[in-house]
Amino acid sequence: MHCIDTDREGYLKDLSDWSADVAVQLAESESLTLTDNHWEVIHLIRDFYMKYKISPTMRVLVRQVRDKLGVEKGRSFHLLTLFPDNPLKRLSKIAGLPKPPNCD
Fold first, then answer.
1. Residues with Cβ < 8 Å from 67, sequence gap 6 or more?
2. What is the pLDDT of residues 43-86, one digit of tens each?
3. Domain map of the chain by residue range?
4. C-alpha distances in Å from residue 75, one per residue of 14, 65, 78
5. Architecture of domain 15-94
6. Catalytic pick among 59, 77, 103, 104
7. pLDDT tens digits for range 22-37
């Protein structure tokens, strides 16, 4: 494990520092162990961010997951199961993205 430069909330200071290994470290700091289900959503949100240069809202994220991964996974409950408490905030952090607006 190498040292990751994060802000006081645990978000990467330099988004280019992100890698799969960094994601694992960030997930561990959130007491999460990443599974294939986590990874498919991580890649989805990263692709969205790279395309639009902004993090999706929760509603848009749920729609994206539903469109790309199917109806069963495209539910808020599925995301809450994977990333408890605040899925968008935790997912963005682990995916190496900036803190989403309105996520305090």
1. 74
2. 999 999 999 999 899 999 999 999 999 999 999 999 999 999 99
3. 15-94
4. 31, 8, 5
5. Orthogonal Bundle (1.10)
6. 103
7. 999 999 999 999 999 9
The full DSSP string for 11-64 is: -BSSGGG--HHHHHHHHHHTT----HHHHHHHHHHHHHHHHHSSPPPHHHHHHH
Q: What is the CA radius of gyration of the chain?
A: 13
**100 touches 26 (CB < 8 A):** no
Residue length of the chain = 104
Decide: 41 and 91 in contact? Cβ < 8 Å.
yes
Residue 103 designated active-site: yes
Distance CA 73, CA 76 (A): 8
For residue 90, what are its two tokens? Answer: 């935790």
